[in-house]
Amino acid sequence: QVQLVQSGAEVKKPGASVKVSCKASGYTFTGYYMHWVRQAPGQGLEWMGWINPNSGGTNYAQKFQGRVTMTRDTSISTAYMELSRLRSDDTAVYYCARPQEWLVPLSWFDPWGQGTLVTVSS
Amino acid sequence: DIVMTQSPDSLAVSLGERATINCKSSQSVLYSSNNKNYLAWYQQKPGQPPKLLIYWASTRESGVPDRFSGSGSGTDFTLTISTLQAEDVAVYYCQHYYTTPPAFGQGTKLEIK
Fold first, then answer.
1. SS3 letters for chain B?
2. How do residues A62-91 score in pLDDT, each as one tens digit?
3. Which of A5, A10, A42, A93 is the most exposed place for a label (fewest CB within 10 A)?
């Protein structure tokens, strides 16, 4: 079955960077864009950006421009999201999510990864 | 950017009664060339990722109970749960995928009265 499995929880100090992985299985990795969405504690869902796993092309939300880098390793069907210069308000659960439609950047998201909690604290 | 606004922020409904959640987009998400509304609904329970319920504003995802239905067009949309069950307690989000950036509503928390 189609599945996205993310890396484990992280604790980082302010100013550090974090890199979260999302391993895909059950489908052709290069045929579907991958998005990243985050959710601060008790808050709503915030879109961060997407990567085209085929070309490596990216599109980031303006809020994260200059701090986020999305990459992929097609040999192991894994997408990565790295966020730098972390602040306390970056504490959140980070999700990878796959659009439903082949080679289309925007679509409804299904499936989602299980989420990775990133805690930023001194 | 298109902004999504849900109402109400929270809702308490008795078991077996109808629950209605509204979602409004700041501009139309209806694509005229295919007459489709680029709008999805999700359910999120504590500690879980969002679960897809509805896409194209009214198409129910496979396996989703038929008490869940979506309606609306253009800028105004509704998620209806016809007869509330205990397992429907969750936060519900609408999301547009009309253009980049896609965006979510702020969420509606549904509880049992």
1. CCCEEEECCEEEECCCCCEEEEEEECCCCEECCCCEECEEEEEECCCCCCEEEEECCCEECCCCCCCEEEEEECCEEEEEECCCCHHHCEEEEEEECCCCCCEECCCEEEEEC
2. 999 999 999 999 999 999 999 999 999 999
3. A42
Of the candidates A36, A44, A51, A52, the residue with the CA atom closest to the CA atom of residue A94? A36
- C-alpha B15: how far from chain center: 19
Among A35, A99, A113, select the one facing B49 at the smallest CB separation: A113
Contact A42, A17 (CB under 8 A): no
Report the residue from A61, A95, A110 with minimal CB separation from B101: A61
Chain A interface, best mutation among B1, B52, B91, B98, by max A CB count within 10 A: B52
Burial class (CB in 10 A: 0-12, 13-18, 19+), B32: exposed
From the CA of B15, how many Å to the nearest CA of chain A?
Answer: 25
CA distance B8 to B28: 20
Distance CA B35, CA B41 (A): 18
pLDDT tens readout for residues A8-45: 999 999 999 999 999 999 999 999 999 999 999 999 99
- Chain B residues in contact with A1 by the CB 8 A cut-off are none
